[in-house]
Design brief:
single chain, alpha/beta, Rossmann fold, 2 domains, 4-stranded antiparallel β-sheet, 10 helices, globular, binds adenosine-5'-diphosphate, binds magnesium ion
Length: about 270
């Protein structure tokens, strides 16, 4: 098993059970969606896999080995995550933000541009070109020189995705990539996510938390459904859609078709403030 194995994960926050006995696999080179009503534990699950939250019980395996994720080492461990919300360096330009994403895994480039350290001009130029390429692919190359804070929310979101992608993760975790995006952006985003598992020479697995059911059903090989911290169903999109437990999970808590930007921003602040 070369992908990610989530085995019997439980998380408690004081008396609150945020996750209970959650087990599933994210096989190599597949897209796995995690869905469920608000408060189901989706972000907590992402926080466990990225090392921000220590599980109360259970274990993770990554690429065949026991995995104890650490946020500061994650990218080097081949795992990259985007935050629910945006999480860009607000004072850096779009291009610099993307270059940051590559710098952690590459020896050269970024530090020179940001801190004026002597580095090979050629490496820097290559990194810059690659960053620009990702911005182009995400349709936002025209804002490469603009400071992130001045960009519209959906544009920031694409820059954040470009920044995640340039590190060429072997596991990419996307927390609500379509949040705040318009209908016209969803098609290209879906195409991009579907193509990711075979984007580079090493296979990439994708984990995705998303409220846009159309997107989930279109891009995912497999869907895991959480409700009150428990995995109530998992299977192909078709299997999950037909599962009565899934309909039950959503009764009285209809999934929002479009995410509320203000709520997302609040959630991001909460997350960052932890
Ligand atoms: N750091 C935390 N401290 C206490 N409770 C938390 C914390 N993070 C999340 N929770 C609670 O855990 C549950 C799951 O939350 P979350 O993972 O954010 O759900 P989702 O992302 O599916 O909306 C919720 O009841 C939430 O209030
Ligand atoms: Mg969440």
């Amino acid at each position: 098993m070369s992908g990610l194995v989530v085995n019997d994960i439980g998380v408690r926050f004081g008396g609150l059970v945020a996750l209970e006995s959650v087990s599933f696999e994210v096989p190599e080179a597949t897209v796995t969606g995690v869905i469920g009503p608000n408060g189901a534990g989706k972000t907590t699950l992402f926080n466990v896999i990225s090392g921000f939250v220590k599980p109360t019980n259970g274990s993770l395996m990554w690429e065949g080995k026991p995995f104890q994720p650490r946020p500061d080492r994650l990218v080097r461990q081949g795992v990259t995550r985007t935050l629910q919300g945006v999480g860009l360096f607000s004072h850096l330009t779009a291009l610099e933000n993307v270059m940051v994403g590559a710098a952690i895994t590459r020896k050269a480039g970024l530090t020179s541009s940001l801190f004026g350290l002597p580095r090979s001009d050629r490496d820097e130029a290559r990194l810059r070109a690659e960053a620009l390429e990702w911005l182009e692919r995400l349709g936002v190359a025209h804002v490469s020189g603009r400071v992130a804070a001045t960009l519209a929310y959906p544009v920031q979101k694409r820059v954040a995705l470009a920044r995640a992608l340039i590190s060429r993760p072997r596991l990419l975790m996307l927390d609500e990539p379509a949040g705040g995006l318009g209908a016209e952006d969803l098609g290209p985003l879906a195409d991009l996510i579907k193509a990711l598992p075979r984007e580079w020479d090493t296979p990439c697995s994708v984990m995705l938390v998303e409220h846009h059911m159309d997107l989930v059903m279109k891009v995912c090989d497999k869907v895991v459904v959480l409700d009150f911290g428990k995995c109530v169903a998992q299977g192909t999109p078709t299997e999950v859609q037909a599962d009565p437990a899934v309909a039950a999970a959503y009764l009285g808590a209809a999934p929002s078709a479009t995410s509320d930007i203000a709520a997302e921003a609040a959630a991001l602040n909460e997350e960052v403030g932890q």
